[in-house]
Each structure stands twice: as C-alpha cells, then as structure tokens.
Amino acid sequence: MQANQVARTSSAQSAQHPTPHLLADIGGTYARFTLEMGKGDFQYTHSLLCADYADFYSAVKAYLQSLPDLHIEHAAVAIANPVDGDQVSMTNYHWQFSIEEMRQKLGFDTLLIVNDFTALAMALPRLGANDVQQIGGGEARKQSVIGLLGPGSGLGTSGLIPAGDGWISLGSEGGHTSFAPRDEREIVILRYVWKHFAHVSFERLVSGPGLELIYQALSEHAQVKPKELTAPEITQHALDQHDAQCIEALDVFCALLGTAAANLAVTLGAMGGIYIGGGIVPRLGEYFAASSFRPRFEEKGRFSRYVAAIPTFVITAEHATFMGAAAILDAQLRTLKTEPGSAILGQIRRIRADLSPAELRVADHVLAHARAVVNDPIAEIARAADVSQPTVIRFCRSLGCEGLSDFKLRLASGLTGTVPVTHIQVTDDDSALELGAKVLGNTASSILQVRSQLNRDMIERAIQLISRANKLEFYAIGHYGVVAQDAQFKFLRLGIPSIAHTDSRLQLLSASVLSDKDVVVISSSSGRLPELLEVAEKVRERGAKIIAIAASHSPLIRKADVALIVDHVEDVTTHLPMVSRILHLLVIDMLAVGVAMGRNPGTAGLMSGEADERLDEATPVSKKPAARNQAPGVSLASPLAKLTSHSR
Q1: The pLDDT of residue 201 is above 50
Q2: Fold of 452-647
Q3: How far is CA 204 from the centre of its chain?
Q4: CATH 1.10.10.10 fits 339-415, yes or no
Q5: Looking at the record, which segments are called Disordered (predicted)?
C-alpha cells in the first residue's frame, strides 16, 4: 500500500463534518482514497494499486482498515466509467458491483457513485489561479460553457453548463469518438493500430496505453525494434532526451491531445475554456507548455480564430477530483437533510395530516426507517408499523405507486440517486431576463419531478376508460378551467363526445344525468375544494368513473377510480398557479396521445398544435364515433410503452 498523509487544512477555514466523508477516485490502475473532515480538509490520503485487490469492495475495506477508529456514514466515489443505474462495470478494468449492495456491505448511509470526469468537472468552478496552469493565449468568458478532458488509463471528457447560480455537469464518453489523422505520420500510426483494432478512437491513442501504441508504431516505421517500455518509462525517456522514438511518441501524443481538445471546444462552444486533467499531462510540467499541444489546438481551418480565443488550462491541483466528488456529495446530503430519501418521502411529509391513524403509522415507519423499508418484506413492514398488509398496499397506491414493489423502487432510486433538481425562488430584484430564466427553469424542474412519479398502470387505466367512454366530461374550477377547456378541445378532435364545465352548479347538474358508461376527469391542484368533492360524490352515485388529476393522498384522489398524481408546491410569492397548471395540461396531453396511439399509432405525432389540420384530413370527425370504443381484444400496452418511454 502506498500512503501519504495530507496535512490538515486550517480548521478555522472550514466547519467540520459531523462524521468524516469518505471520498475515492477509482481509475484503471490506481484507487485513491481520502477522508474529508470538513470542507477542503483532506486527510488520510492513500493510493492503492487496483491489481492488488480482487474487487472494489476489497480495496475499500483495505483502506478503511488502515484508518484509526472513525465512524463513516457518507461516501462518494468518482470512477472511470459511465454510471447509469445501480450496476457498475468498469470499462478499463474488471471490477463490477451493485451500488446498493456495496452500500449495505460497507455499512454506509449514503454511497454516491459518479463518473470521475463528472466529479472533476464539478471541481472546476472551485479552482483558484494557483490550481491551474494556462497553456497559450485566450481569455475565458464568464458564465460560459467549460470543457474538460484528460488522458490516463483512458481519455475522459466532460463539460460544465452554467445554470443560474450553479452548474450542470455533462456525463460524456467523448473519448470514444473516432480518431482522425492530421498528417502522414499520424496516418502511419493509424495503419499500425488498425492491425490490432477495428475501431480506433481518440482514447485508443490519447491515453497511457495509447502512448505505448504510438511508440510501437513509430518504432516499426523507423525499422527499429521497440523496447518493452511502459507509458511512464516512455515519458521519462522523452523528457530526458534519451530515445528518439520516445521523444517523437510524446510529441505526437501532445499533438493528438490538441486535436481532441479543439474538437471538444467547438462541439461544446466552450468559451469558458478547456481544462486538462488526468494522470499524465499534469506531470509533464513545462514540457507540455512548449509542446505541439497548443499549436495543434489552434489548427482548425476556418475556425482557427474561434479556438484561438479559447484558453486552455492544465489542472495542477492535487485533489481536484476529490473536491468535485465532495461538492456533489454535499449537494446530495443537503437535499436529503431537507427532503430525506426521495421525492416520495417529500410526498409523505406533505400529506401526513390527511392520513388515517393506520396509514400514519406506516408513513412514520417509512420516514424513520427508509433504507430498511427498501429491503424488508411486506410482513415485516406491516408488523413494524402495527397495521395489516392491505393497509401497507393502500398506502403505497395512494402515493401513485402500483404497489409495494413500485414504491420500493422509487424510494431506493431517491436514496442512492444523483444530484437533485431544485426550485429557484423568484425575487423582486430579478431582471426581466432572470425572471424568465427562473420561471422556465422551475417549470422544467417540476416536469422532471412529475415524470419520476408517473404510474404506468394508472395512465393505462385512464386511457382505457377514456377510449371506451360514451361521454367524457372535464370538471375544473378557477384558474384550472383552462385545463378542462383544453381537454375538451383535444378529445373532440379525436371524435370523443366531450364537454368541459368550470361552473360548480353546471357540474352538479351535468353529473346528475351521467350513466355508468361515462367518464369524468376532474382537475384540481390541491384535491380539497369542497365544490369538486361534492360533484365527485354525485358522479359516484351515478356510477360513472372518475379520473382525478390532483395531489397525492388528497380527498379527491380517495374518491377517484384512477389517480394521476401531480405533486407540486406553488411559489408562495405569486397568486397564480403557474407551474402546476402546466403540469395538469401535460397530463391531459399524455392521455390524448395515449388514446390516439391506441386507436392508430400513426396519429400520435399529429397531436401537436402544428399538425391539427393533418389530423382533420386523416381522420374526419364524422367517421370518429364508430371507431371510438376500443375492441375488447385490443391491448393498449404497446402504444403506452411508447408514450411512457418518451416521458422517461
């Protein structure tokens, strides 16, 4: 085990964490670990050789056993691999594992796994002038896109997009873009590598193993027998001017990195600069500053002036990846502190006052033991909450889940998930542009949150009810009246007899003549308006079906045959239901598209506003009623799968 303890940062400059945060940077060769005692205070930093450990768990345990007796609850791991879901399989090494299984085995409350270059990207806004070395000219534009790449065991790429007061990092695998030679020497290298690999990416050459390939190719071309040299040895021979092929190989390597960096710059429009990290370039020092990198970076034909204005920097900060991983973990923990676990736990907190005594016991048990609930069987959950098993199922379904399994999946994804979407408060000091950006940003965030709560079974049942209805009525009051009116228009265009009522007296009168073959869609943000609850009772008396678009566990949801959950807390600084009204309109759109796809998959794309005329031509209204009622043998599963896949 290699070990080097890092000196403590002044504790006066950073508040200490209640327990140390474990941070790791896992590459194809080394696994680096540290403990963050407080913000920027890294201690007990060790580097382990991956080849010495059979798997990820063994390496982490070896590091933990080297520490004094410290209690660790939260950890963040930056790994040289795409991270998508619970299973991680490293691209450049054989380690693979389940994130949740590792969290349990290691006994952590939080285990956050992120791509290593995503973590490094998140460190960039926190780097100071002493943490980077500028190579060449150019000047960074403030609040502009930033690009990041760096060779190591592979070629990592990422980027940062400014978003309000923060940044959005890009999960990218741009290192696997196809390599393109720029001169005869690079064509020679490409031909050599083609003998071994069908596809040659930039990562194949601009990396540690790539430097070895370049050296071998140049040696063969010079008719010199190559020595058995590793990438570090080739680099050292080149820096010491001891071997002609090594010198040439390192020169080519730097030039190819310049091409890759320029490609990234024009792809992202990275006027905020291009940063270079990884395990190779920062060790080259002044050699890299004088190398072919910057001249090649600026060789972009008609776009040479464009890239010449973009600055390039080498990251020299020793703990940059740790800094980024720590920032992501801090963001996650701040969210878990205000809304621990997931959006579902946030839903439970909002509706606790409306729960029955039995359901309240289930809710309190979930809030207190969220991680245990993910793994416990229903019998154990019911026993711990002192309720029946059917009560547990009813509780889950009242939150918009299909059942306990669906509830657990959503809960688990929140407990081990990624950096959450946030709501940005609109203030009196905002300019017109800032107001617009915040309103659009908040709307987009809310749409993503509703998307995570979609219940496939409920959407499918709603589409089936509407498709088979003799008559379809839409009820809403006040600002939500436009939702009912919009729905009436859409379903009339589909040939379904529809009417919208936004007056409570007309709603009661209309409900009193419904039949058991009719369907009523009621839209209400709170789901608690007495007028709508009264009309819902009248609809139930007549035997008609109710589809409710409302907040989870509201009185209206309890009266509905199909519950479409839209949980959104409006900005208290405004009197208008801006975002939630848009969310209700989107739910109507989903139902309309689903009905259209169920009857004729080819018409789904015609539901957008610009295609109304084509919808008329393709399906005349006079012919629609005959096709309205769906045949019993026709399944909506296929079109619904397409609909919900778009929503995900």
Answers
A1: yes
A2: Rossmann fold (3.40.50)
A3: 28
A4: yes
A5: 1-20, 605-648
